[in-house]
Amino acid sequence: MLFGSSGIRMTYGRTLLDLSLSVGASVGTDRKRVVIGSDTRSTRHILTESITSGLLCTGADVISGGVAPTPTVAYAARNADAGCMVTASHNPEDYNGIKLFNPNGSPYTLAEQSRIEEMVHNPIWNGWDQIGTRIDADIITPHRDAILSSISPKSGMTVVLDCGGGAGTAITPGLLSDAGVRTVTLNGDPTSTFPRPSEPLPENLSYMPAIIRKSGAACGVAHDGDADRCVTFDNRGRFIAGEHLLILFSRYLDLHEVVTTVDASMAIEEVATVHRTPVGDSYVSEELLTWGGIGGEPSGSWIFPSHSFCADGIYAAALFCEIAGEWDVAEEIDQMPKYPILRSSIPTPHGQAALSHLGAEKPTDGLRIAGEDGWYLIRASGTEPKVRVTAEGRTKEIASALLAEGESRLKAAIREVS
């Protein structure tokens, strides 16, 4: 299986390089106009050119956007037949990968992924006289303009922005500046070696609260490596949990049909009608094609169907800044229902087998056990050799007990299959 919960990812090497050529040819067989972009990793040039070569060999025309966020590439796909992003998102620098998008911004569906997986083993190559063409294009400006046409952060407000040295550096600082926002920008230069771990977890952003308070900022926002994610801090410098940010977006936009994942807090169900999907923004996006006004997952992916069916961390950052300019975000968060959520992960090469042993139909979807006072989820990572355990309870004691139960079941299963 090539595709995980968010595209194709693996450590850089011959396997990925060979695969990228075949994936390009497989995409180009059906899609004859493809936009391509990449994050800032050092291997981006090699993989982008390899995919481009595969596309051209099938007669497909390629629109090259250079370094750009994932949602920017997905947005540009509306003027093409598909979008292709070279990124490993929040994974370490030695990883890279591929994400594929439809013209409406939605990630390739499971059926579309399966077709690619079948075709990569026997791609179709055209002759020398049926090769496609390649052009360079500015895909940043149309995306920026689309966001600014629908979102208006308060002019003169102060925002602390951490781009993490990734693809978000190409658009978010300029977008907020164009909106009249005063930004205190951290890690705002693109770099192939991330200045902080790319995943925007609270522990990787421990410096943000003090900077927000010192600068008198109305809020703080941070991206991962390809800026499809956005995490936020309130005006007191407190990290906002993903489920509470989703509730905030839902209330502000007056959208109360919400799609989220199986690892999201049960608090969301107290304020909205909820459909749950497996973990992964591609599943959320696919559900939103037929139901719901807004979607997201606790890790920081937010989808606004009126804008795009791709998780858009830039749109989310601008929208959050608009909210922070109008509402006291800290007070809004304080009024929301809260239940303790505990998370752990166990590194293991036997994650898939362990989940199958536990009875999960698909290891990367996980096994969720729920009761009246809480739940736990055991899920094999779709991008890394580890298994995650998440538990939520109405009290911390209940959450701790559920987490321990989940970890115990997982460790027993690993022993059985290893």
TrEMBL record:
Name of a matching Pfam family: PGM_PMM_III
SUPFAM superfamilies: Phosphoglucomutase, C-terminal domain, Phosphoglucomutase, first 3 domains
GO molecular function: metal ion binding; phosphoglucosamine mutase activity
This protein's UniProt keywords: Isomerase, Magnesium, Metal-binding, Phosphoprotein
Gene3D superfamilies for this protein: Alpha-D-Glucose-1,6-Bisphosphate, subunit A, domain 3, Alpha-D-phosphohexomutase, C-terminal domain
Cofactor: Mg(2+)
Record's keyword annotation contains Metal-binding: yes
GO biological process terms on file: carbohydrate metabolic process
Domain Alpha-D-phosphohexomutase alpha/beta/alpha span(s) in chain numbering: 2-122, 145-237, 242-333
Descriptive protein name: Phosphoglucomutase
Domain Alpha-D-phosphohexomutase C-terminal residue range list: 360-404
Keyword Isomerase recorded: yes
Protein family according to the UniProt entry: Belongs to the phosphohexose mutase family.
